[in-house]
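Regression check, iron/sulfur cluster case 211:
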Amino acid sequence: MGACASICPFQRIEWSTFGEPKVIETACEGCGICSAVCPVSAMQLRHYKDDQLVPKIKAMLTPKWLSEEKMDEPVIIAFACQWCSYAAADAAGNMGMEYPDNIRIIRVPCSGRVDALHVLSAFKNGADGVIISAASPRSGNYLTGNLEAIDRVDIMKKTLDVLGIGSERLETIFTSACMPTWLITMFNDFTERIKKLNESSRPKLEAIPMD
Ligand code: SF4
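Current build output:
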């Protein structure tokens, strides 16, 4: 108990007189890192609750939103930190740059908000690959949020290997709002990687132990 309080980079969680964690709501920065580490999903971030993110993931994957001739192509979910990657994707759009329509971006407050439930949910609902796009180390808006994401991805990669999905189908990208070209390059490279992987096999959905 208490993972949320110990991981909050701003010390915005205190203990109630009943010995329960209590968020100081007026001072909370809204990163959602505490939600990602709660083992019983008791800690939820407003607007980015699990029961809001999971339906969003499903909606992004069903149907595949690909033209008929591209229906066999991979679909990739990209969780994008709103301050760096999402802003970089926005900048890319404003500059008239394009990225593959295989990529589906889901905005999150911080890459540290993404946990195994979201990644497995993406694969379970038909994603061929998942990107967690974070701020570069030491430049995260939420101090340690991106570092938490890196550690979590390492563990999730091991889980994906055990499940037979393959760790190479999950990747972390580091970027900032002023790096739209880099972001697009990374999106293109990852899409090509997943296309190659799909030539030999696709993720086995039945291997994922969830609804
Ligand atoms: S959302 Fe972020 S700032 Fe707010 S309590 Fe959780 S970890 Fe702390």
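Comparison notes: The chain has one domain: 49-207. The longest helix spans residues 180-200. No diff flagged against the previous build.
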